[in-house]
Please model this.
Amino acid sequence: MKSKRLSLVLMTAALGLTACATTQSPTGRSQTLLYSSSQMQQMGDASFAEMKKQQKISGNKKLTQYVNCVANRVTAVLPDQTQKWDVVLFDSEQVNAFALPGGHIGVYTGLLKVASTPDQLATVLGHEVAHVLAQHGNEQVSRSQMTGMGMQIADAALGAGGVSNRDLYMSALGLGAQVGVILPFGRAQESEADIMGLELMARAGFDPAQSVALWQNMSKAGGGQGPELLSTHPSNSNRIAQLEQLQGQMQPLYQSAKANIKNQCAAPK
Model:
């Protein structure tokens, strides 16, 4: 019964909640969404295009193929298979990754030193894709709208080619760590992304038990401040405890899925 409830979480997110309304998030939390799916896609497209212009893309073919392998398996279990996902590996020591509306995933090479196994990388990618499924970016931009900042975000993102205020809408979409403006997702959003991301990785045939090891690695990385990823994804004992509590529900999904996995993803040595 619990597994069915978690599946409903993903299905609810995949339906694309109606914008301009107060509605419920996939886990039943109240959300105010002021923007349509097409507007959010425009923001995601504009942000990703800008990042590809300004940041170095990795030329390491083996690493790129590996990241694509993990990302493709995670996105292959999404209920909506009409969305095509663009995956880019950026050449940077940042320990970070993100996903954006419109089907965009960015991974930094520095993350691969901390997320050292395919299962750990799938933990991060499942989490980031879950933010998109749960429309957390829409929620952030909508909150900014209601505090007077949103019109600037919308004008910059939705204007004809205008990117002069890109820091504003990129930070609202969870990219603050990359552009120097921090507008982190809240604890409730993080918890939702953890729950949904864990189910995604399990259904994709990645071991959800490795999620605990991943966040433990994250908390140790980068000294006292931790890596960039933790500036918008705070790691704490509550997060790890929640992941541990969910293992009983997720392990059966993983055991069922792994027997049917044909595309194994091996980290390059």
Observations:
- Residues 156 and 163 are 5 Å apart (CA to CA).
- Confidence is low (pLDDT under 50) at residues 1-5, 8-20, 160-165, 176-183.
